[in-house]
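Supplementary Note 3. Input sequence used for the single-chain structure prediction.
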Amino acid sequence: MTKRSIAIIFALAIATFTATAQVGDPRNTLSIGGSAGMGTSSVSFIPTIKQTTSLGPTFGVSVRHISEKYFFLICGLQLELNYAQRGWTELIEDGSGNEYTRVLNYIEMPFLAHLGFGREFRGFQGHLNLGPQVGFLLSEKEIYGGKEPWDISNRPNQVTEQYGKAIENKLDYGITASLGIEMRTGSGNFGLEGRYYFGLGNIYGITKKDYFGRCANSTISVRATYSFNLF
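The predicted structure, written as discrete structure tokens, is reproduced below.
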């Protein structure tokens, strides 16, 4: 973990605390829920590996505590435990007819500042969630497809180091943010949100002796959510 990454995560943690520690109209609402959806993922490589859309499922559970209303903002914290399928699918245009996908299965835990605006109990409420996220690689799989035999002699930039190379750093960390809307009813809160994850960690080593200078996860996902208030 670089000093820059530590500074960014520390700043986010301070921002999360500040967002929920203002002097406002007190609240004490605890809710639990779940989410499920699909995401498009990629890995930012240096040297560059050209990629196409790689789809994977995501689902999990969440706990949210609302602590206050500050002017029109409904402030709280949200902790999640999710499964997410990430990875990358290469766009191979060298005439070989090869296809390649790396599937990465993660368990992840976002720690989010929650800022809501709109109706508190009955009606529509929008929200912004922002904060740090850590994840751990559960498993990985390489999928080789297309024409045989497998031919890597004409790959763009001659980048072939990734083939057959196991993920070296199972711990992943970064920043995640989401925008969503909930319909709050007497039967629970039904929502839809879009989320972006920007990885700060790298899946392979990036020291001077290593091949890649950067190789970090990036994900955009859309999720349906449901939650209900415990009190």
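The domain at 3-229 is CATH 2.40.160.20 (Porin). The radius of gyration is 20 Å.
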